[in-house]
TrEMBL record:
One Pfam family linked to the record: YbjQ_1
Recorded superkingdom: Bacteria
InterPro entries: UPF0145_dom_sf, UPF0145_YbjQ-like
SUPFAM superfamilies per record: YbjQ-like (SSF117782)
Official protein name in the record: UPF0145 protein ACFSC0_14510
Family in the record: Belongs to the UPF0145 family.
Amino acid sequence: MLTSTTPGIPGREVAETLGVVSGEAIIGAHIFRDFFAGITNIIGGRAGGYEKALRQARDIALQEMCDEAAGRGATAVIGIDLDYESLGADNGMLMVTAAGTAVRLR
């Protein structure tokens, strides 16, 4: 599945628009506190465990979005937007949402 944050794929024409598709991943923010508890996880001012968890959540959201698009017969998702939100009591959860337009390309 081709994906792009731009409104099209260079060199390809959109033959049909199939609608908005999205994917979400929600992870518990408490895991981040556990990462920070082990100061050895922080190297050069960066929290490797935190970054890895965010990357995994983003990948899950994108895969769910692509799966929905494939179910509609799409060959690409364009105009993708990624959003990160804190949810729950004391912002104890983190949600990553990927949304875009499913299209069939020529």
